[in-house]
Amino acid sequence: MAFFEFKNVRIAGISAGVPKFVASNLHPLEDDGISSEYTPEAFVETTGVLERRLSDKLTTSDLCYEAAEKLIADLGWDKSEIEVLVFVSQTADYILPATACILQDRLGLSKECYAEDVALGCSGWVYGLSNVASLLTSGSVKKALLLCGDAKKRAKGPRDPLFGHAGTATAIEYVEGAEGFRFHFGTDGSGYDAIITPDGGSRNQVSVDSFKLEDIEGKQMHRMQTRMKGMDVFSFGISTAPKSVKRLAEKYGFDYLDYDYFVFHQANMKMNNMIAKKLKLAPEKVPSCMYHFGNTSSASIPITIVTQLKEKYDKPTKFICCGFGVGLSWGTVAFTSDDKMHVSDLVEVEEPKGESTWV
Amino acid sequence: MKSIEEFVVLFAEQFDDTDPSEITATTVFHDLDEWSSLIGLSLIAMVDEEFDVALKGDDVKNSVTVEDLYNRVISKL
Q1: Hey, are the CB atoms on A42 and B40 less than 8 Å from each other?
Q2: What is residue A263's three-state secondary structure?
Q3: Terminus-to-terminus CA distance in chain A, angstroms?
Q4: pTM of the predicted model, to two decimals?
Q5: What superfamily in CATH does domain A3-179+343-349 come from?
Q6: Interchain CB contact of B56 with A (< 8 Å)
Q7: A340: CB partners within 8 A, 6+ apart
Q8: Is the ipTM of this complex over 0.95?
Q9: Which residues of B fall within a CB distance of 8 Å from A239?
Q10: How far apart are CA B77 and CA B72, in angstroms?
Q11: Does domain A183-339 have CATH number 3.30.9.10?
């Protein structure tokens, strides 16, 4: 039973960074891989994704970096006190080294820093939060950054209209007596190919054939792109997310209907509406940002809080957040934010000018 | 348990532009003009709600007629 509780930890603040460029699904460009199966209007109506932010230059770590700088400045944190950095992404800067190491230096954090990458997607913010909370709960380290998101892909190809680019930062700190977090997690690797980038890892090494376009459910895609069995993922999401919320509530003996906000991974509107309906949640308790940002993978929960819940609460507020998807992997967390949990303004990141100076 | 007739009605409700009279138990639904994987998502949601059955993508893809899909749902009850 993958239940965990970590006390003496709180979220100090959350921020999110996105590219400035907005791609509309109603007016797809040449690069947008809208399926020939349906019209742009039908796609927007069913998925609930009107537009999303994209960049061919900014990586996930660039977006996370800007989000982290904004959050650290807003909180007035002393960088030398940040001793844990966890980077959750499936679009790391390099195959190696870990992007968390690069970010430790770029952010100017102390070399006395625990830094690691976690290769998870839609469930990643909840997993990352549990990693950080478990490291902080004993109090030997006081401040941590959790950086989550997905953006620019490893190889160019027709763009998937469901997905947007975003990088987020969550600041977490040790506070004696803080209520902390309660988690439930699950994994079903039998669905490993439901969402998969087939080539470029060591199972299928990258080759010329990796870039040949194939017809995948009406879309032209190559094997360095992420493909999805949409109906399988949909079926998984609508059954797994409600069950995970219910199991967490049963385990810790609370009524989930007493919670103020339910922030779900932003998969698609139809899926999220079904999940809310199955849990009998009032629509105003279930914020959504996929209309403007699409599915942003592990960034989706924090970016929903940043864009939809800023200044929506001025008292302690009870959150349930649930991420589910690629893996297949899922996680749910319940926590009460105090009224000081800071939410930064959305950071719109400019593309870097000139030649890249990175290796 | 819902009958095949009730299932056909629920199936037809997932379409916007297709006249319900066009859909019967023997309709080869992948050939309908309006058919797409987005309708497939609606079907999976409907089956989850009405039958508490989790269909896989292959259940939808490998069913030829509406009745085939109904039989797959019933076999998972």
Answers
A1: no
A2: strand
A3: 44
A4: 0.93
A5: Thiolase/Chalcone synthase (3.40.47.10)
A6: yes
A7: A12
A8: no
A9: 48, 54
A10: 9
A11: no
